[in-house]
Amino acid sequence: MSFNSQVIDKLASQDLPYVEANLNYLVPMAQKPVNYTYEPPSGIPRSNTAYEIRKSRIYNARSRREDILLDREGFAFTEHNTNVRDFYNEDEIRQVYYPEAEQLLKEVTGATKVVIFDHTLRNADISKPGENKIREPGKRVHNDFTAKSGYTRARWELEKRGLGNDEIEALLQKRFAIINVWRGIADTIQESPLALTDARTIEPQELVAGDLVYPDRTGETYAVTYNPEHKWYYFPEMRRNEVIFIKCFDSAENGPARFSAHSAFDDPTSPPNAPARQSIELRTFVFYPE
Questions:
Q1: Is residue 2 pLDDT above 50, yes or no?
Q2: Which range marks the domain in which residue 145 is found?
Q3: In the chain, is it the N or the C terminus that has fewer CB atoms within a 10 Å radius of its CB?
């Protein structure tokens, strides 16, 4: 995944304002990373990983948001109003927000089919691990899927929807992607914004596949090791009518951005006592015509 450093340096140095903040990167390791989503059996650690803090420059991308492309940088931004009144209402998310996001993704990507298969709410003030499904912001540099788990999760989710093997294989023979749709769901975000890296600045060896162990299955995600060439961006003070798209996987091995990376971070310009960030992210399959 080589990149033209002169082009990227030009993009990152167009007098964009920036903050310097700490990002948590995986410490290189010989073993495969393993993380349990629940309390593991006695004697087994919850995780075998270690992370190192790296101070990084994170550019404010608002002034060039129209120049950033999902298939080039691996993320994108748009404005989009929602009719959802209460994002903590599960039925409203599925009955109102899912159809809205499906239509939006078709318009943005040109996809012929969109399958929304998961969503996560984040609010550190009310997150209670083991008691509710609301999580705190994830402050480690990562990508939600790997070259392997993109296909594995697609087959699993399509089987759950009753598709036959022939229909599933026909879909997976064409290009498809996993795209997260990320939105703030309350007031303007002032705390724990999302940092996104230009996919072209990530080298393949920096994406480290690790097992994510659930009670009923094992997924696979990428942790990321440090490279000072990574170029980071964010959209400060996001409002409820603004959306970020994150490319987590693309079956096309050449051409478009295939994997990106992201992380929440502690913004040094956040006001003291800023309210906890409230956000929702959808995980979606986007199937292209060819």
A1: no
A2: 33-270+278-287
A3: C
- How sure is the predictor about 10, in pLDDT bands with cuts at 50, 70 and 90? very low
Written as six digits, the tokens of 132 are 């509710």
Whether residue 19 lies inside any domain: the answer is no
Q: How many independent structural domains does the chain possess?
A: 1
| C-alpha to C-alpha distances, 198 to 9, 22, 89, 90, 99, nearest whole angstrom | 11, 17, 34, 33, 29
Q: Residue 72, Cβ neighbours under 10 Å: how many?
A: 16
Reported as a single tens digit per residue, the pLDDT across 207-225 is 999 999 999 899 999 999 9
Contact of 188 with 239, CB cutoff 8 Å: yes
Contact between 211 and 34 under an 8 Å Cβ cutoff? The reply is yes
Q: Does 5 fall in a domain? A: no
Residue 251 dihedral angles phi and psi, to the nearest 5°: -70, -20
**How is residue 101 written in tokens?**
């996001």
Q: Identify which of 118, 279, 152 has the alpha carbon closest to the alpha carbon of residue 220.
A: 152
What's the pLDDT tens digit per position in 36-83? 988 899 999 999 999 999 999 999 999 999 999 999 999 999 999 999
**Domain contains 194:** yes
Q: Report whether 102 contacts 267 (CB < 8 A).
A: no
Q: What is the C-alpha to C-alpha distance for residues 214 and 236, in angstroms, rounded to an integer?
A: 33
